[in-house]
Amino acid sequence: MRMLGGRHVSASRLIVILLVGYAGLVVAFESMLGYFQPGAGTSLVITTTEADGTTHDRVVQRLDSDDRLYVSANHWPRAWYRRALEQPNVQVTLDGDTGDYRVVPITGSEHERVDAEHRHGIVFRILTGFPPRRIVRLDPR
After folding, report:
1. Model pTM?
2. Which among 47, 49, 67 has a CA at the least distance from the CA of 114?
3. Are residues 55 and 84 in the same domain?
4. In a domain, 38, yes or no
């Protein structure tokens, strides 16, 4: 047993407390991202559309690689990513210009190359709860 706030706490309870605290940290960090979006020049706005025609804008960080444009889902909340896969024709606002693009999921060596060129540090991965990274290419239509 360990002491926590003047009480004896079993190892299993301590682990649960630490896990709940960590989950709270991840939720707090993810919630604050709306205030700390990527800055101009490193971000774009992707407009996705639901099956019923409802549109949604999301600010995401742009990834440039091999003269192509990519974006990635780096967090657990990723509704924009699911909508983009379901309805791959999207609009992108980049440097003040809006254009039509097609979302293309990437895998294999292309994914490995883009991921390696735009790695996230361990602190970012800890704060976001280690979500799997999904990357898509944005091809102009």
Report:
1. 0.70
2. 67
3. yes
4. no
Question: Number of structural domains, the chain?
Answer: 2
**Does the structure show a pLDDT above 70 at 139?**
yes
Mind listing the pLDDT tens digit for each residue in 16-53? 777 777 666 656 655 566 556 555 557 899 999 998 99
Q: Which two tokens stand for residue 3?
A: 């002491």
Residues 6+ apart with CB under 8 A from 135: 63, 70, 71, 72, 73, 105, 106, 111, 114, 115
Q: Domain span at residue 112?
A: 43-140
Model confidence pLDDT, tens digit, residues 126-135 = 777 777 888 9
- CATH number for position 134: 2.30.110.10
- What does the DSSP assignment read for 70-121? EEEE-SS--HHHHHHHHS-EEEEEETTEEEEEEEEE--HHHHHHHHHHTPPP
The CA distance from 26 to 124, in Å, is 10
